[in-house]
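Exercise: predict the fold of this chain.
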Amino acid sequence: MAKWLLLLIMLLPRPCRAGPAPIILVQPFNVTVLNLDVASFTVVASSGTTMTYQWYKDGNPIPGATAAIYTILSVTAADQGRYYVKVTNAYGSKQSSWATLTVLSAPAITAQPVSQIATQGQTASFSVNAIANPSPSYQWLFNGAALHGGGARNSTLNFSSVDWTNSGTYSVVVSNVYGSVTSAPATLTVVGNLPVSLTTVATPVLGSSGFTFQFSVQPGFTYVIMASSDLVNWTPIATNTASAGTVLFTDPVASNFPYRFYRIGLQ
């Protein structure tokens, strides 16, 4: 009987040799720019095949950021954060190191101080909200003059117990090394018994010695009498500390003016 030898030859596919995944040669680096300037991140990578890129901000993919260079033409505070890029080819992907974008900016006020009315002895406060990088400093102003102490260098100015001396206009200068901005003015009106008031005990009289009028001041307070002929330009004409509750004052030069107006304030 004839014998046959059955030879089964199995042809197996030869294993494919994998290509190299991307190699990042130059990592993106940290960038610091001024607000509204241009910022760019760059990666340099190598592989034997075509590569694709996808940039991420704070771990989230950035739509359209698919090139080796990612550029922001006009940065704002919203662009500040941490970035990286993922480089991919047919054989794998490689993530770059993280790079930080820091946006430097002059202060911008996002919430202005608000005018308010308070009764003597009550608390009161003014606040301002601002954004800036680096963080801003604050200087509160009262009627245009810098305040000192009591939170005058904070974003919030507090009064634990207001009195008439706190009545006036407040604003705040917010500044850092890149600029400054002054808030809109806000008015504090303190209601209650004021230490100065006009009185009708004596009718104002223009006599040979001058114009005489009377007003009330709480003892111990220093008052200033100012005069004007146009209600615009005021000149101090007397400063005294009240020793009694009623002050009788005479302006000896009142008759030299066609009009003469007076106002009384406290130091």
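Check your answer against the key: Confidence is low (pLDDT under 50) at residues 1-13.
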